[in-house]
Write a structure and sequence with these properties.
The chain is of the alpha/beta class. The chain folds into two domains: about 170 residues, Thiamin diphosphate (ThDP)-binding fold, Pyr/PP domains (Rossmann fold), CATH 3.40.50.970; about 120 residues, 3-Layer(aba) Sandwich (Rossmann fold). The protein contains 13 helices and 14 strands. Helix 4 packs parallel to helix 6, helix 9 packs across helix 13 and helix 10 packs across helix 11. The C terminus is likely disordered. Belongs to the transketolase family. Pfam families: Transket_pyr, Transketolase_C.
């Protein structure tokens, strides 16, 4: 199957969560949504109106939301806490660790405004370290869908999944890649494009950038494997190892700091198994700033053109060390 980027059909991934959680709540009365006074922003306002008996708004009290969710989970309910990613990972961090992950409770932390998408709200609201922090919590599953359809599918999978989970969504509208009937499995990556010269592993919004870069590279005769690693914990280690076979060249792309997130997770596999060079594209050791989302991506080098430039650099290197002349396959 061929996957392409449909820029004419854009929706925020948070909308996918909002629509799917209503459908799930109607099917299963044990599904609850806990809001922290930002239901409209998290797209759970429709759930609150249609299913008020399964909805609680605790106000601006994220730690209390985590505690309430933990309590509900002990009674067999399936609570989804909806908030911004920066609050759902950092402000709630201790409660998630102690009250949810430690007792292995079935709580889902569903967060909008992930990564740099808060844009002009500035660095205080841009969650660039959220997945890295929560990935370290034992038993926590970490998922970031690429767009609206993927979010609906993975939200449904989250409701079926047993145990703590962090779901990360974007504020801005993202292009469509998958159809509405696409199948997903937690912990199993999706290969969107086959290639033998190098692999590009991305998640969330950066999947579309990886596909765009692969198209540009193809015009130069370079065939890139593109992988949507929507789950960074548990990581699809088998797919990472397959990607390492692409002449030992791997690029990771993420809307997240390069420390602790997707790039780190992939690098850990490479460090243990060897045989590949990795280049990580993402936010460097710095906070965000106020600008549009696209401007922030450009400022941080999270672009298709920078992926192409990084690929050219890797293609000129020998995985065993030194420079080599590479004749990419597909010419």
């Amino acid at each position: 199957m061929t996957y392409t980027v449909d820029n004419d059909n854009k929706k925020p991934t948070r909308n996918g969560f909002g629509d799917e959680i209503v459908a799930l709540g109607k099917e299963n009365p044990d599904i609850y949504v806990i809001d922290v006074d930002i239901a409209k922003s998290c797209k759970t306002d429709s759930f609150a109106k249609q299913l008020p008996q399964q909805h609680v708004n605790v106000g601006i009290a994220e730690q209390n939301a985590a505690g309430l969710a933990a309590g509900l989970a002990t009674t067999g309910k399936i609570p989804f806490v909806a908030t911004y990613a920066v609050f759902g990972s950092l402000r709630m961090g201790e409660q998630i660790r102690q009250s949810i992950c430690y007792p292995k409770l079935n709580v889902k932390i569903a967060c909008s405004h992930g990564g740099l998408t808060p844009g002009n709200d500035g660095g205080s609201h841009q969650a660039i370290e959220d997945m890295g922090v929560l990935r370290t919590f034992p038993g926590m599953t970490v998922v970031m869908p690429a767009h609206y359809n993927a979010t609906r599918a993975l939200t449904r999978k989250a409701a079926e999944w047993q145990g703590p989970m962090f779901l990360r969504f974007t504020r801005d509208a993202m292009p469509t890649i998958y159809g509405p009937d696409e199948e997903f499995e937690i912990g199993k990556a999706k290969v969107l494009r086959e290639g033998e010269d190098l692999a590009i592993i991305a998640n969330g919004d950066t999947v579309r950038l990886a596909l765009e870069a692969a198209e540009l590279l193809a015009t130069e005769g370079v065939q890139a494997r593109v992988v949507d690693m929507h789950t960074i914990k548990p990581l699809d280690v088998d797919e990472v190892r397959r990607s390492m076979q692409c002449h030992g060249r791997v690029i990771t792309v993420e809307d997240h700091t390069i420390m602790g997130g997707l790039g780190s997770a992939v690098s850990e596999v490479v460090a243990e198994h060897g045989g590949a060079m990795v280049r990580r594209i993402g936010v460097q050791d710095q906070f965000g700033q106020s600008a549009t989302y696209e401007e922030l991506l450009e400022l941080n080098g999270i672009t298709a053109t920078n992926i192409v430039a990084t690929a050219r650099e890797l293609l000129a290197l020998d995985p065993a060390g030194g420079h080599v002349e590479v004749q990419p396959q597909g010419r």
